[in-house]
Design brief:
single chain, mainly alpha, Arc Repressor Mutant, subunit A, 8% strand
């Protein structure tokens, strides 16, 4: 698609399922339901899971760096990190150069729970019913959509 999507006037009175924002929102909720058995088994939440993913990708980052990656405010992220620290999955330490910054690192236990969760995600990927090419294309399209929306909201 090369141009901007146009919406015909008759679609403005459409049903809830006609709205892309609702499709994305409700799909996110469906993902939560699909992941719930795995997360219940591991004793983690979805926000904790994505935090473990980000820390596995790059350990020892600041709370603000992590917040940017996860699209979470510090007021949301800090309690989440404290809970992960309490169960031994992360460490929180003051930066040696700038003590105002708190650095987060994945522990050995955190790495182990991440690996269990990562292996379990195959069930959820399978539950999408998408073939590999469609899965990859959809993920790419959603990242493009997110980027466009962020760009537009920054204006």
């Amino acid at each position: 698609m090369t141009g901007k999507a146009k919406q015909p006037k008759e679609a403005l009175a459409g049903s809830l399922t006609d709205f892309l924002c609702f499709a994305v929102y409700s799909t996110n909720l469906a993902f939560g339901r699909a992941y719930k058995p795995l997360f219940d088994e591991l004793g983690i939440t979805y926000p904790q899971y994505v935090t473990l993913i980000a820390l596995n990708e790059e350990s020892d980052q600041t709370v603000s760096q992590l917040g940017e990656k996860l699209f979470l405010e510090s007021s949301t992220l800090t309690p989440l990190l404290k809970r992960l620290e309490a169960v031994g999955y992360v460490t929180r330490t003051r930066d040696t150069v700038d003590e105002r910054q708190v650095r987060i690192a994945l522990t050995k236990e955190g790495k182990a729970i991440f690996e269990k969760a990562f292996c379990g995600r195959e069930r959820v990927i399978e539950a999408t019913g998408l073939d590999y090419d469609t899965f990859v294309r959809l993920q790419s399209d959603l990242l493009t959509l997110r980027g466009n929306l962020l760009k537009a909201s920054a204006k």
